Amino acid sequence: MSITVVVADDQAMVRAGFSALLAASPDISVLGDADDGVAAVEVVGRLKPDVVLMDVRMPRKDGLWAAEQIIASGSPTKVLMLTTFDIDDYVYEALRIGASGFMLKDAPAEELTRAVRVVAGGDALLAPSITKRLIAELTATRRRPARSRAADTLTPREREVLDLVADGKSNGEIAGELFVSEQTVKTHVSSVLGKLSLRDRAQAVVFAYENGLK
């Protein structure tokens, strides 16, 4: 089955370019697009894509607002933020509210299609080295909240898995490092998300940094 996508960006050429690149992949279908945050929420609600590519800066309402509306609604659509380095703080906030990852708008075409597949599969964050550095820098400059007691419910193995998730590693990479099956890793990740009441791996990364587990 095709991965369905909606592209939200206020620049018509960017929307057209991304849509064309994605549509060239046989396993990806572009259902529609939107030119601002309000339209993005409406289009996603109507078309229910697997993934929405969401530009951070858009008129009327920005991508951060739109992402929050989509995630808060309980929609299964995964939000992939499109950004540039000068707005990293917005990316951090997007991850906190539940965006599944981010990518740079000038990334190569093959990275765009890979990003959509990764987010649709919920397997790992995008550009893990960039994500890790970004969150580490931002959390270092913020006052951390009191550590969540939920962290104490994790078993030693679950904390080990969370640590590796926060490093941006995929289930397969974690399995290889811990010498266990990939299915075992999936079970641990699901348990971690459940115990910590987190939506996905992106929020797990933020949780790990904010609670001093990284």
Write the layout of secondary structure elements.
Layout: E1 3-8, H1 12-23, E2 28-34, H2 37-47, E3 51-55, H3 63-72, E4 78-83, H4 88-97, E5 101-104, H5 109-121, H6 128-141, H7 156-166, H8 171-178, H9 182-196, H10 201-210
Parallel strand pairs: 1-2, 1-3, 3-4, 4-5
Helix pairs in contact: 2-3, 3-4, 4-10, 6-10, 7-9, 7-10, 8-9
What is the N-to-C order of secondary-structure elements (H for helix, E for strand)?
Answer: EHEHEHEHEHHHHHH
Distance between the termini: 37 Å
| Side-by-side strand order of the widest sheet | 2-1-3-4-5
Shape: globular
How many helices? Answer: 10
Description:
- The chain has 214 residues and is α/β, with parallel strands linked by helices.
- Helix content is 53%, strand content 13%.
- It contains ten helices and five strands.
- The chain has helices spanning 12-23, 37-47, 63-72, 88-97, 109-121, 128-141, 156-166, 171-178, 182-196, 201-210; strands at residues 3-8, 28-34, 51-55, 78-83, 101-104.
- A five-stranded parallel beta sheet has the order 2-1-3-4-5, sandwiched between helices.
- Helix 4 (88-97) packs across helix 10 (201-210) and helix 6 packs parallel to helix 10.
- The mean pLDDT is 86.
